[in-house]
Amino acid sequence: MANVIPLHPNPEDLTARQRNILDYVVEFSETSGYPPSIREIGDFFQIRSTNAVSDHLRALERKGWLARSEGQSRGLRVVRNPTQGAETRVKDHAEAEAQVLPFAREDNGMVDVQIIGRVAAGLPQPALEHVEDTVRVDRMLLGGAREVFGLRVIGESMIDAGILPGDYLFVRRCRTAEPGQIVVAMIDGEATVKRFFPEGDRIRLQPENPTMAPIYILASAFRSCDLVGTVVGIYRKL
User: Fold this and answer.
1) Does 157 qualify as catalytic in the annotation?
2) Assigned domain for 6 exists
3) Which residues pair with 114 in a beta bridge?
4) Are residues 70 and 151 in the same domain?
5) 138 and 22 within one domain
6) At 31, is the secondary structure helix, strand, or coil?
7) Count of domains in the chain?
8) 91 a catalytic residue
């Protein structure tokens, strides 16, 4: 059921903390071109609990100042700017990311794939966004995909799928996936590689290691999962 947003939000309805968080979201969005993650908000205000941050964000949503896009880790959108009294459009994380991620470059059937950072095969870890390395492979090994980038694997949660620490994953950029596909997902701005299973009002990110538990993303928890792409190949230096 859709949330009801007041037609004319009143700044006097906000607590001091809610107003401070709203001001931070507005300033961050205007400066960066995309909204902050829950973790970044918590770090800025020294709030250790992500649930506490989520409570403030839900209150701002109920009161008509923020809206959110389901399925995105940076899904906040400023509906109304309290300093301007007008609607403010903010790029979502996917739009901002599309401007900076490099894709594969093709030359006579060979492809140069840029390795732009790392991805956790385990608990989510920050993904670096600078070019660490470049590998050249036959495009056929990528299943014909063109918009491909590489990530270096850390962790052991996908070892039963043949994904080992130090491997390079080739990732085809996309925002949707079929159940059971291996995906790279962003959770609160951090990256992980898992099998993807949508399950009603939640998403299950399943490891391929019997000693590790799945990660559940509940739609009601204001902690969303933003798919970056699907894994189309693995490169291993011998």
Assistant:
1) yes
2) no
3) 134
4) no
5) no
6) helix
7) 2
8) no
